[in-house]
Amino acid sequence: MLHLHDLHLYPLGLLWADPSLLAAWGGISAAGGASLDLYKTKRDIKYCFYDLTNNIFWRSVVIKTTSAATTTTTSESTSSSSSKSTSSASSSASSISTSSTSAKSSTTSASSSTTSSERHFSSNPKCKAAVAWEPGKPLTIEDVEVAPPKVHEVRIKIIASGVCHTDQEYLTGQFRQFPLVLGHEAAGIVESVGPEVTKFSQGDKVIPLFLPQCGECERCLSPKTNQCRKNWANTQAGVMADGTSRISYKGQQVYQFLGVSSFSQYTVVPDTSLAKIRSDAPLNKVCLLGCGVSTGYGAAVKAAKVEERSSCAVFGLGAVGLAAIMGCQAAKACKIIGVDVNPERFEKARLFGATECVNPRDHAKTIQEVLLDMTSGGVDYALECVGSPVVMTSAFESTRDAWGTCVIVGWSESEAINIKVEKILMGRTLKGTYFGDWKSVEDVPKLVDDYMNEKLKLDEFITDQLPLEKINVAFDHMKKGIGIRTVINLWPEETTPTVDTV
């Protein structure tokens, strides 16, 4: 006998059914009222669900409704562990009386005929993914399998993903297990949800998050931090809450980078690491809010709290640095100095709000000395967006004593910085930020709104868009400092991405 709590439901609408209906329907039982998510066709009501206990995907259950009775039929089921089809649940319950609690008016309005064509989700779909098999080697495009979501998990069809310097950092580093699917700055569409997921439905537009927000822990309830630790240790290790990855290749586990792995056409994430966004948002643009733009912009407006008419220096003019400049401009800073060894980025920096740009290689003095001279004693705020300990030291020493603030934004996991204690004793502040101090689940949708209302730039960051097959070109451009942000389109054949519905 199947039990309702064992079924993975694919939602489009909602029907409330009482225990008597469920018990009569092919041996499904439940205690008390139970909610069933349904598909609606023009004439029938169709249920698609996944039996987690027996690992079977039931392709369809069609309830034909007439004015007098509701007839239930079931199709064949497909086992995800075998290619063989098995018989479905018995259709002996050919007639079930409806009641006011078991069927709403929408069920009685359907007719008895069945549509001729049906489309269904696979329980373990194969899809394309860029797999990193070992550190420092190019990614290879493989056909991977993405398992169904488990409790409090959501499976997403990734539409677009930015290529971030953090991906490069961990491809060349030794801080994660391989094989690995990188990618963490993305946007997509909910394909299916696991048991106990209540905030997401199939078809929702979403941005996966490498920083969770459970909304219940001490950190989530505190206004002082955004650093929720729900599933943190596991996602950092590339696995879900149960200690395993949902992505595999020919039976071999493939680790999920930061619990996201957006260089895969499908992925599974915890429901606490996902932000639902407005339905009209362009996914190939707002994907940048999954990391780089949110991080840099928040570093200025949230972490540094840049004040009006202040002076700022931003070190590193990649996507994160340009977003930091945008934040400084939004905060109405009067002097915004962009610092980078690549002068080709200066024009773009001015577009985002830089008032001046400096190339450290053009000066005999250190860059901190140059900035002290330019600002008569140092900047009020310095934001380091490179991830280099040497640059971090320079940024800190470029701030004004007594009240200067330096925010470390660039990522480095194992290196140390060299700071003279006297520089701190004289009143400077040194701090770090993670994801720009944004509360991920609640703030990312607001940033999407800001973009849609033309309060935030995104299009201007994107200098190239490539299909997944050319992802190594994106990494090569990043190494050479070509462009700002490359967006990978994982479904380039879909000019207007849509979600399959019955």
Automatic annotation (TrEMBL):
Cofactor: Zn(2+)
Region (Disordered): 72-122
Residues covered by the Alcohol dehydrogenase-like C-terminal domain: 319-446
UniProt keyword list: Metal-binding, NAD, Oxidoreductase, Signal, Zinc
Compositionally skewed regions (Low complexity) per UniProt: 72-116
GO cellular component: cytosol
GO molecular function, one term: zinc ion binding
Domain Alcohol dehydrogenase-like N-terminal residues, every copy: 152-277
Gene3D superfamilies with a match to the protein in the record: Medium-chain alcohol dehydrogenases, catalytic domain, NAD(P)-binding Rossmann-like Domain
Single GO BP term: formaldehyde catabolic process
Coiled coil (residue ranges): none
Signal peptide region: 1-17
Family, as annotated: Belongs to the zinc-containing alcohol dehydrogenase family. Class-V subfamily.
Stated role: Alcohol dehydrogenase. Catalyzes the NAD-dependent oxidation of primary alcohols to the corresponding aldehydes. Oxidizes secondary alcohols to the corresponding ketones.
Name listed for the protein in its UniProt record: Alcohol dehydrogenase 6
Taxonomic source organism: Dissostichus mawsoni
